[in-house]
Protein: Tetraspanin 13
Organism: Microcebus murinus
Amino acid sequence: MVCGGFACSKNCLCALNLLYTLVSLLLIGIAAWGIGFGLISSLRVVGVVIAVGIFLFLIALVGLIGAVKHHQVLLFFYMIILLLVFIVQFSVSCACLALNQEQQGQLLEVGWNNTASARNDIQRNLNCCGFRSFNPNDTCPASCAKSGHPCSPCAPIIGEYAGEVLRFVGGIGLFFSFTEILGVWLTYRYRNQKDPRANPSAFL
């Protein structure tokens, strides 16, 4: 039997929002774990990850409450917000998958020049100094600089992982963007279904 009834739509929507809740808590936990173990010292990066996690958690909470109570207004706002998130996330995911090596290098260099704390984390964790070259007058937290040994530039090392990371992020983004459009469709259908346990005259 095809899943098209009121109860099935409600259960699917609740399950989808529980998945979003778990993902949001995972994002917040990863950010806390990274800063707790000293892997990430950039408050900007941690703040962005936590903000995305909280935003996703709030969206999932609105969708979960709307699905459980069959609340028309909450479901409407949830559907609109999810559609906007889908458009943004789908565009960003396609951009990540479409970047060539030259564009990746330009993007990495812009990020390198604009985030000092993240730059120090990269140099310390990858044991490299400078993006394409290293100025001896600059400070570098890498162990090779502290020991007096010559340090490799970070650009080639980062470039080895940049393509894989962008493909991974783009793939994950595309996967979740399709779950979001599925959520929009489920919400639209669920809003227009009557609760069999409610008074039909009370349905809006």
